[in-house]
Design brief:
Oligomer: single chain
Number of helices: 10
CATH architecture of the largest domain: 3-Layer(aba) Sandwich
Bound molecules: zinc ion
Strand order of the largest sheet: 1-2-4-3-5-8-6-7
Largest sheet: 8 strands, mixed
CATH superfamily of the largest domain: Zn peptidases
Strand content: 5-15%
Length: about 325
């Protein structure tokens, strides 16, 4: 189990922006310069009782690129876009599975289109770089990133990647995470007793605001979709323990097992849907796009889902 506190070694940029953060946090309806919250008491005991809340976390305005697993064959880019203002922080993962290109191209396209109005936006387009290069889901030697959260700094390569993603999410106070995947068939075409068909679904951890937001995103995106086959479904069977057969079936080569494992107890490696165990308060959205659509359409829909969520949490201005 990942211990806390997590590393803050890259926290300097955030600290440098602190005065700006305080300014931004105070620039609401109050008149400039108004002092309304200054502590009055001077003795230590009173000050302890009246300690003001910590300033809100702010990612400095601008862009930064880092490397995850630097110096290894798995090294990959992490892009950080800060608004300089407090707000929600959205992280997007693409390329967790190397044979699901709609996910990584969708994440990559967000690099060009998504700039935060408030809060911050982080993207890892190619989370399993070697798998995307070879166009395979993953390999036994690498491990399956979406079964290994919250990660292990001395484990399989993808366990180490999971650890760095978890660490990054903690450092940047990420509270919404989109994990972009693809599934070979549409959920709407699933047979009554067949295996998982996850295309056009969004699954979340079972907590608010994730559950409500996902359904609002689905409703909004579906209202703009003209072909009924492209419509999304909300999928939430985590922890139910009595779902239909496909939710209990162990996965082998397609996206169908992670949600079940995410229902495990603490300390169990899981899909991204289990990350809130290590990062309380995190909302996770696992988006599965049906590969029976053209690649271009899958990319466009991934972008649309992400941007719709980003608007609803104030990261994109409406
Ligand atoms: Zn996947």
């Amino acid at each position: 189990m990942l211990g806390r506190p997590l590393s803050r070694r890259r926290f300097l940029a955030g600290l440098a922006a602190l005065p700006f953060a305080i300014q931004a946090a105070c620039s609401g309806d109050d008149a400039p310069g108004a002092v309304t919250d200054a502590p009055v008491a001077k003795d230590v005991a009173s000050e302890a009782r009246a300690a003001p809340p910590p300033p809100p976390f702010v990612v400095p305005e601008g862009e930064e690129r880092r490397t995850l697993m630097a110096g290894t064959p798995q090294e990959t880019d992490l892009y950080i876009f800060g608004s300089g203002k407090p707000g929600n922080v959205l992280m997007v993962l693409g390329g967790v599975h190397g044979n699901e290109p709609g996910g990584w191209f969708g994440a990559e396209r967000l690099l060009d289109s998504l700039r935060p109005a408030t809060g911050a936006f982080l993207v890892v387009p190619y989370a399993n770089r070697l798998a995307t290069r070879d166009f395979v889901r993953t390999t036994p030697e690498l491990g399956d990133l979406n079964r290994l959260y919250p990660g292990d700094p001395i484990g399989l390569p993808m366990a180490r990647m999971a650890y760095e993603i978890t660490e990054t999410a903690s450092e940047f106070h990420v509270n919404h995470l989109i994990d972009m995947h693809e599934s070979w068939a549409f959920y709407n075409d699933r047979p009554q007793n067949g295996t998982a068909f996850l295309g056009q679904t969004i699954g979340t951890n079972v907590a608010e605001p994730a559950v409500t937001l996902a359904q609002e995103v689905i409703e909004a995106v579906n209202s703009r979709i003209l072909a009924s086959r492209e419509e999304f479904f909300y999928r939430n069977r985590i922890g139910s323990g009595n779902g239909p057969p496909e939710s209990r079936r162990q996965e082998s080569s397609s996206d169908q097992g992670g949600i079940r494992q995410a229902a495990g107890g603490s300390g169990v490696s899981s899909s991204s849907l289990g990350l809130p165990r290590a990062l309380p308060g995190l909302s996770v959205y696992l988006v599965e796009m049906g590969q029976q659509q053209t690649l271009e359409r899958r990319i466009a829909l991934h972008v649309e889902v992400a941007e719709e969520l980003a608007r609803r949490i104030g990261i994109l201005s409406a």
